[in-house]
Amino acid sequence: MNRTERLYALVDELRAVAPRPRTVGWLADRFGVSRRTVQRDLQALMETRVPVRAEAGPHGGWFIDRDTALPPINLTAAEALAVAAALAGAEHTTPFSAAGPAAMRKLAAALGESAAEEVRALTERIHVLPARTASGVLAVVEEAVTRQRVLWIRYADSAGRESEREVEPGGLLTTSGSWYLIGWCRTRRAGRGFRLDRILAAELREEPCPVRTVPSLDHKLAERVRRADTLRSLSRDRAPRAP
Predict the structure, then answer these.
(1) How many other CB atoms sit within 10 Å of the CB of residue 108?
(2) Strands across the sheet with 162-175, in order?
(3) Distance CA 194, CA 106 (A)
């Protein structure tokens, strides 16, 4: 974590627990730096007019005034709980889940105290058992999808047979509790789906690949997406209008 990232993380941490303070020692341990470094960072934040303050005494420390530091947020309590449940229930094998804890802290920081307590209580009641996945595979797949780069994978099918493929990623799909990489398989010369927990190894190539959509790679999926869009459209048309 570089200094800029740490400054943002410091603000997020203080927002998340506001109005309660954090001591310099606690913050130093949290971010793996010295107390002097934390002191310098907090002083820099004050100089840029971030409303961080210090409170003396045995129960004192550094805190932030969330009323002057946060932009307005338009989530209802139910919407905030829905987001919190999704973040808390995301397994470490869920794509882009690595940013979940930071997003959760920001969500709690942006809510009023009552709603934030509801979010904290809910997340304490959600437990996710770890799933088996090859170390580092998920991050490589995420990068390939985001940057639209060719991906080499070693893959095991449902019978355990292994093969090596070069895939042009189109996107990610989840169904029945499993995540799939949907892409153009250069070996099979066709659109294919690869279950993420069956990808044994992955390497990113620097070769750009054509922009492909998931429905264009899977015609059956395209038909299901079309039907779902039609149903959503009909539901909106039938919904009662607000007076």
Answers:
(1) 23
(2) 190-195, 178-185, 162-175, 149-156, 199-208
(3) 33
What phi, psi does 92 have (nearest 5°)?
-70, -10
Full set of structural domains in the chain with CATH: 3-69 (1.10.10.10), 77-124 (no CATH), 137-228 (2.30.30)
For 16-42, b/e burial (b = at least 16 CB within 10 A) is bbbeebbebeebbeebebeeebbeebb
**What is the Cα–Cα distance from 181 to 218, expressed in whole angstroms?**
12
Q: Alpha-carbon distance 17 to 111, whole Å?
A: 11
Q: Each residue of 17-69: pLDDT tens digit?
A: 777 888 999 999 989 999 999 999 988 888 877 788 888 877 778 888 755 54
pTM listed for this prediction: 0.53
With tokens 């840029």, the residue in question is: 48
Task: Please give the Cα distance from 217 to 170 (Å, whole number).
Answer: 8
CA 106 vs CA 61, 75, 117, 118: distances in Å: 20, 13, 14, 15
pLDDT, tens digit, 9 for 90 and up, residues 188-233 = 998 888 999 899 999 999 999 988 887 788 766 656 655 655 555 5
